[in-house]
Design a protein that fits this description.
Number of strands: 5
CATH topology of the largest domain: Rossmann fold
CATH class of the largest domain: Alpha Beta
Strand content: 5-15%
Radius of gyration: 20 Å
Oligomer: single chain
């Protein structure tokens, strides 16, 4: 983009939310190379991201999915109740389809992998600021594949996550305050939706799709 074109553009005010100082400083350095991009604040966790968003009213929020206090998904869901609705770009190490699907369903408009080239970061910010959705081609393909797969209900996800902790059907029933018979039915549906023949395969597929954390297994 030419300098004359940049000078005629509105300055885009950006809030960065990431719990790693190196990532925040790296983004600040990258964004400082463009005259129309200005970082107005940095948040270290999800709670601070919401607080600074309300205080600063940035044009664009670059948001890490994995943060303490409130994770990125919670922040997106909470901020989407604001008017005008925020323009959010999700920043993550994960290219897992489920993370992507949940983020975009909640209202995020852009998706960047940590380590993206500076030009991709600049273009994504400008596209989201302009009201467009911005996804790398390979990420968009993953989203399309994820949307074509049967989606687990909230209750099924709760059961799945307890399974990942190694809980038996009886233990899951006690934790979720439902009958053991109901848990068994949920487990059958989970296996069917994931096309898995048992718990081990279901956990592997769920981890690959981002339905559960690999550390939980």
């Amino acid at each position: 983009m030419s300098s004359s074109a940049l000078s005629s553009q509105k300055e885009i005010r950006i809030l960065i939310a990431d719990d790693h100082p190196v990532v925040r400083e790296g983004l600040v350095t990258i964004l400082a190379l463009q005259k129309d991009l200005k970082v107005v604040g940095q948040a270290r966790d999800g709670e601070e991201a919401c607080l600074l968003y309300d205080q600063l009213s940035p044009d664009v929020l670059i948001l890490d999915l994995r943060m303490p206090k409130k994770d990125g998904q919670q922040v997106v869901s909470e901020l989407m109740s604001r008017e005008p609705r925020p323009r959010i770009i999700v920043l993550t190490n994960s290219a897992k389809a489920e993370d992507l699907r949940r983020s975009l369903t909640a209202g995020a408009k852009g998706y960047l992998l940590k380590g993206a080239e500076p030009r991709q970061v600049w273009e994504t910010i400008r596209e989201v600021f302009a009201g467009k959705s911005s996804l790398p081609h390979d990420i968009a393909a993953q989203l399309a594949e994820s949307m074509a797969q049967p989606q687990l209900s909230q209750r099924e996800l709760q059961v799945l996550r307890q399974m990942a902790f190694g809980k038996s059907n009886k233990e899951i029933a006690q934790i979720l305050y439902i009958s053991e018979h109901t848990v068994k039915n949920h487990v059958k549906v989970i296996f069917k939706k994931l096309n898995a023949i048992g718990r081990t395969e279901a956990m592997a597929i769920a981890t690959q799709r981002g339905l559960i954390d690999s550390g939980a297994c």
